[in-house]
Amino acid sequence: MHNVSTIPPAPNAPAHAFAVSLVVTTLGRVKQVERLFDSLAGQSFTNFDVLVVDQNDDDRLAPLCVRPWPFRIERFHTPGERGASRGRNRGWRRTRGDIVLFPDDDCWYPSDFLEKSLAAMAHWNCDIISGRAADETGRSINGRFEKAPQSLDLVNVWTTAIEWMVLFRRRALDMLDGFDDDIGIGAATPWQSCEIQDILIRALRAGLRCWYDPALVGHHEEMILGSPDAKLMRKAHGYARGMGFVLRLHGYGPIKIAEWVARPLASAVVSLARGRADMLPYYGRVAIGRLEGALRRTYGN
Which family does the UniProt entry place this protein in (predicted)? Predict the structure, then answer.
C-alpha cells in the first residue's frame, strides 16, 4: 500500500522561468533528511517542490514531512521496495517540474545552489547539467572531478558526475525512460553503483547536450578511508562491481577496462610503499569488483 502525504506550497511564492522537482529516495535516515530539508528551506530560488520516496517499512519520516516547510512536500510511501534507482524512477514520474534533481537523503546544498544551477543550465543551453561533491570550503570530495567546465563525453563521464549533483530536463528523462532499476545502491543485483554514468552515456548516445560546471557544488559527508573496516570494504566492492558492469554494458573495450582495474592495484602499491599494508585488502576488493562487473560474474561476497 502506498501512502501519500502533502503540504501546500508556500503562500505567494514568486513565479520563475523554471519549475524544479526534487526527488529524494530514502531508507533508514531521519536526521540527515532533516538537514537536507533545512538546506532547501534556505534556497534563494523557491519555485520547487519535493517528492520523498520513502522506502522505510515504518512511518518514521511522516512527522518530518508534515512540518510547515516553505516548499511543497509529497511523501510517497513505498514500504518493501528497495533501490535508489527504482525510487528515483517511481518519483520523477509523479512530479511535474520542468527540471528534476535527485538529492541523496544525506546530502545538502548551499543556499544559492538551485539558482546557480538553473542559470548555468540556461547559459550552457544543455539538457543535463552536473556539478561536483565538495566540503563547505569548496574542496572536492568523494571522487575525482574535473577542474574546468566542459561538455560530457565517454571519457570524462567518469570524472564529471555524481548522482545527487545532476539536473535533468524532464524531456531528457522522458526520452531515456529514467534510470536502470537494476543498477545502483540497493538494487537487487550486484551492480551497486554508476547508475549516473549509465544514464549519462545513454543521454550522450541519444544526442542530448550534457554539460559539467565545477562551480556547482553540493555537500555530503566525506568518505575517509582511514583503516577500512569490513562494512566499508563490502560497500566499495559493490560500487566497484557497478563500475565494471557499466563499462562492459556500454562497450568500453578490454584495454579501458584493464586501465580501471589496474588503478586500485597501483594505489595498493603506493600504500604499501607508504607503510599502509592495511589498505591492501581494500584496494584488492575494488580491483576484483571492477573485474567481476566487467565479466558479469561474481565470486563470493
Answer: Belongs to the glycosyltransferase 2 family.
Whole-angstrom Cα distance, residue 270 to residue 232?
Answer: 20
Spell out the alpha helix ranges (H) of the chain. Answer: 31-41, 62-65, 84-92, 113-124, 170-176, 195-205, 230-249, 254-273, 280-295
Q: Which of 130, 104, 272 is nearest to 193 (CA)?
A: 104
Q: How far is CA 291 from its chain centroid?
A: 23
Q: Residue 2: which pLDDT band, with cuts at 50, 70 and 90?
A: very low
Tell me the CA distances in angstroms from 246 to 57, 131, 296, one per residue in order. 30, 21, 10
- The residue behind cell 580491483 is 287
Q: What is the DSSP string of 134-199?
A: B-TTS-B-SS---SS-EE--TTGGGSS--GGGEEEEHHHHHHHTS--TTSSTT-SSS--S-HHHHH
Using CA atoms, how far apart are residues 289 and 190, in angstroms rounded to an integer?
10
- The domain locations on the chain are 3-220, 230-295
Q: Looking at domain 3-220, which of 3.40.50.2300, 3.40.50.1970, 3.40.50.880, 3.90.550.10 is its CATH number? A: 3.90.550.10
Separation between Cα atoms, residue 209 and residue 195, nearest integer Å: 18
| pTM score, whole prediction | 0.91
pLDDT in tens, 151-210: 999 999 999 999 999 999 999 999 999 999 999 999 999 999 999 999 999 999 999 999
